Amino acid sequence: MVGKNIVVWFSCGAASAVAAKLTxxxxxxxxxxxxxxxxxxxxxxxxxxxxxxxxxxxxxEIILAINTEAGTTSCVxxxxxxxxxxxxxxxxxxxxxxxxxxxxxxxxxxxDYHVLGFTANExxxxxRFIRGERENVLPxxxxxGITKGRCFEILxxxxxxxxxxxxxxxxxxxxxxxxxxxxxxYWNHVRKMHPDVFKHRAEQSRRIGARLVKYKGERxxxxxxxxxxxxxxxxxxxCGIFCDNY
Length: 246
Known about the structure:
alpha/beta; four-stranded parallel β-sheet
C-alpha cells in the first residue's frame, strides 16, 4: 500500500493507542497516517496527559477534531440543548460530539482507510461497523490477534502510564458518568468515585426526565437508586465516533 490517507480515530483509550502505533509502524513510511481525537469535556483530565504521551510514542502530533456546528465540546451542554440524555435512540452526545466531528473532518480530508480500536475479542463490533458505516477499515488489532488486555501490556512495556480512569475501576477511558450505561453497578461506582458527577447527572436527568438506570427490571431516576444496588459486572461502554448505539 502506497500513497493512501489513513485516519486512526484515537479515543484516549488503550486499544486505540496501540492501534495507532501499529498503523504508523506498518503503513507510515509510504502512506499519510493521521491520528485524530475528538475531545470531550467530561472525560477525566488525565486523558490529555495520556494523549501527549502517546504523541511522543508515535512520533507525530495527534489532530484534534471537533464539530464546530455544535458550539461546544461538552456532553452536559448537548443534553441541556436537546433535553434528551439517553434512551432507545442512543445518546445525542455521541452523535453530535463524536460522529458529528468525524463527519466534519471527512468533508475536508480525503480518507482512504479508517482504523479503530476494535480488538481481537471485538470482531462482532468490527463486522457491524463495516456493514453499517464504512467498509474501508483496516482491522489492525484484529489481524494481529491483539486483545484489550494485551493492549494494556504493550503500553506498560513502552513505559506509558495508562489513563488513571482505568485505575479507578472504570472499564474504559470514556466520559465519567456515561449516560449510555443503565447499570446500577456502574452508577453506584460513579457515586463512590465521583460523587459530584453523580449528583450533577442525577439533578440534570431528573430535570430533563431521563431515567438513566435500570433497577429490578424498571427504569428509575439516579437519585432513586439505592446505594447498595448492584447489577452485573460493569460492561465496556466504549464510546467513539462509531458507537454501537447509532
